[in-house]
Design goal:
By secondary structure, the chain is α/β, with parallel strands linked by helices. The chain contains 11 helices and 12 strands. Helix content is 44%, strand content 15%. Strands 2-1-3-4-5-10 form a 6-stranded parallel sheet, sandwiched between helices. Strands 6-9 form a two-stranded parallel sheet. Strands 7-12 form a two-stranded parallel ribbon. The radius of gyration is 19 Å and the shape is globular. The mean pLDDT is 95.
Length: 315
């Protein structure tokens, strides 16, 4: 009954994660869903956000929109990523307060965690140090919105929650090598190398860093479960509680794709944060979320989707 007759505003609803969130909403019977598009609504501009709220009159807001990329994109755009993510969140939260929404869900980032956070990452460690340098501007901008939501809860009884999804992957991901994250980048590189009979594939870093990956459909379900059942002011991790080194990840994708060449590690490029694995106990306890898609199954689905978008790759 939580979603019954509700008007839901989903920023980023046309994006990678947002498409699955909107599918989940429709599966729950929601018919009044507003998805703003960047071409007609710039969320970094206060007046345009105010107009969006006036026109959509939402009961529930899921703020998924972000400007983000991999290590290379973060190194090229630190100022833009800070401004865009800070400005979008600032205006979205304030207008939610002004319009008296029933629930506001802010999607954060694990890039907000300190560079040397003890593993597994617990929510209470979020402020225990400075984030990894290559993505710190993005991470700090997102983390500032947690402070804003908590301050608004204290002063205005604002109904906001803050979620920290781990690295996402899956169908519809960004496969642009200039801005993509590690899994789509590796899939594209290995598929291309296989189809063009390239002898080797270059991968950034040493391969020693570890990451945790959450299948995008699982994340979407976690967000909706949190909206339905979580009312706390503390941040909540969304993940799988399993990590894999980039070396093992690359070799797994190489095997799934069927590429027989060599992997060359470019150690002149950074590894990023040394390790990432989340403690996911709070999400399970507070709103019953547990990921259900294993990494191998998720990778096979993602490779199959990418090849379906590229007929040459699928032959």
């Amino acid at each position: 009954m939580f979603w019954s007759n509700k008007s839901v505003l989903v920023t980023g609803g046309a994006g990678f994660l947002g498409k699955f969130v909107c599918e989940g909403l429709r599966a729950r019977g929601v018919t009044n869903i507003t998805v703003p598009r960047q071409a007609t609504c710039d969320l970094t501009v206060e007046d345009e956000v105010a107009m969006l709220y006036n026109e959509s009159n939402p009961d529930i807001v899921l703020h998924l929109a972000a400007e983000v990329g991999g290590i290379g994109a973060n190194r090229k755009n630190p100022g833009r990523y800070f401004f865009a993510n800070m400005a979008m969140g600032l205006h979205m939260v304030e207008q939610a307060r002004v319009h008296g929404v029933e629930k506001f869900v802010q999607i954060g980032t694990i890039c907000a965690y300190p560079k040397f956070t003890p593993v597994p990452f617990k929510e209470e460690d979020l402020w225990a140090g400075y984030p990894e340098e290559t993505n710190a501007p993005y991470g700090i901008a997102k983390k500032s919105l947690l402070v804003m939501i908590q301050a608004y809860a204290q002063q205005y009884d604002f109904p906001g929650i803050y979620l920290l999804p781990v690295n996402l992957y899956g169908p519809n991901d960004n496969f642009d090598l200039e801005s993509s994250h590690v899994i789509p980048a590796l899939i594209r590189k290995f598929v291309t190398a296989r189809d063009e009979n390239q002898p080797s594939v270059e991968v950034w870093g040493s391969g020693k860093a570890s990451r945790e990956f959450l299948y995008v459909e699982d994340c979407a379900e976690g967000i909706l479960k949190a909206a339905e059942g979580y009312n706390g002011t503390g941040p909540v991790n969304l993940g799988t509680d399993h990590e894999i080194t980039i070396k093992d990840l690359a070799e797994t994708i190489q095997e799934v794709v069927g590429y027989k060449g060599e992997i060359i590690w470019n150690t002149d490029q950074p590894d990023g944060q040394p390790r990432r694995r989340l403690d996911t106990q709070r999400a399970e306890e507070e709103f019953g979320f547990m990921a259900t898609t294993g990494l191998d199954a998720g990778l096979r689905k993602t490779v199959a989707w990418w090849e379906s978008q590229n007929p040459v790759a699928a032959t």
